[in-house]
DNA sequence: TCCTAGCTTAGACTAGGTCTAAGTCAAGAT
DNA sequence: ATCTTGACTTAGACCTAGTCTAAGCTAGGA
């Protein structure tokens, strides 16, 4: 039983076979997939699954606050099932691979009051960029 | 004379009338525009300017390292002419307004070696999110 | 069983961005 | 001064990611 499915069920959200496959595909990966990659993998388990259902379902999970939507490459969104723990992202500039990482400090503490321009700052996320081992070897 | 134009010229990059208009439009704004917004404003000064030239020029300026490409909303890229000073961004979750801010420390120092997964980490940027004064008042 | 609301589907559509082929321009060679 | 060459610009076709629509399906309650 997927932990994400458990969390989703708490919102009284109907867990249909399609939604279960999508949630499990999302959670089963340790990297962050795009919607197309999730569709591709989910279709292996449920061949008649449609693109629209994948997009609808991902958007609903984001709206419920159980999945994070990430956009770092400007091309496609990526989905992170780990919405309940504070973390940041490490992104490969070569291949787009994205991993979760944890920093030793909370960046909100490092933004002085006079740099806040009257905003209420509620959260901060760090995008670390570099090259993954494979892309280092390739270059 | 635009400072961005000066920086671009140092790369032996030809400053054509189109490129000058685009660079000046980009630098003249204190918020970060999308490519379409830049086109819209630049066309007021040079009506025959084409969409392709705006996209080409923005991409070239990014490749030269003089302009930053920002993607926070997952819909369109925004361009930041201030690539030569290390800074982060403060984003309003209500209206999308984006401002430059400066933190008191470099976040790269906060990522322990065992969290780097073999990546070479070259830079890090922080996205601070919250509500701007106008959106606080509206809610 | 029938109704109903919600879910899923295929495929049309949209927005943002890229590519292509043709034309224009400017600087150096003649 | 004109020619050549390579870089730049253009209009519009094309591509990709994502959304919308209309129709069909499904499960649970009356």
TrEMBL record, chains A, B:
Its cofactor is Zn(2+). Keywords: DNA-binding, Metal-binding, Repressor, Transcription, Transcription regulation, Zinc. Pfam families: FUR. It comes from the Bacteria. One of its GO terms (molecular function) is transcription cis-regulatory region binding. Binds 1 zinc ion per subunit. One of its GO terms (biological process) is regulation of secondary metabolite biosynthetic process. Belongs to the Fur family. This is Fur family transcriptional regulator. It comes from Glycomyces luteolus.
């Amino acid at each position: 039983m997927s932990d994400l499915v458990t969390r989703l069920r708490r919102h009284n959200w109907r867990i249909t076979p399609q939604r279960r496959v999508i949630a499990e595909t999302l959670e089963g990966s340790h990297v962050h997939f795009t919607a197309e990659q999730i569709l591709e993998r989910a279709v292996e388990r449920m061949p008649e699954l449609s693109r629209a259902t994948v997009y609808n379902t991902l958007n609903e999970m984001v709206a419920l606050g159980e999945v994070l939507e990430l956009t770092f490459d400007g091309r496609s969104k990526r989905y992170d099932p780990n919405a309940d723990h504070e973390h940041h992202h490490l992104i490969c500039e070569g291949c787009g691979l994205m991993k979760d990482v944890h920093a030793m400090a909370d960046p909100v503490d490092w933004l002085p009051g006079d740099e806040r321009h009257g905003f209420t700052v509620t959260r901060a996320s760090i995008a670390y960029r570099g090259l993954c081992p494979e892309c280092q070897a390739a270059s």
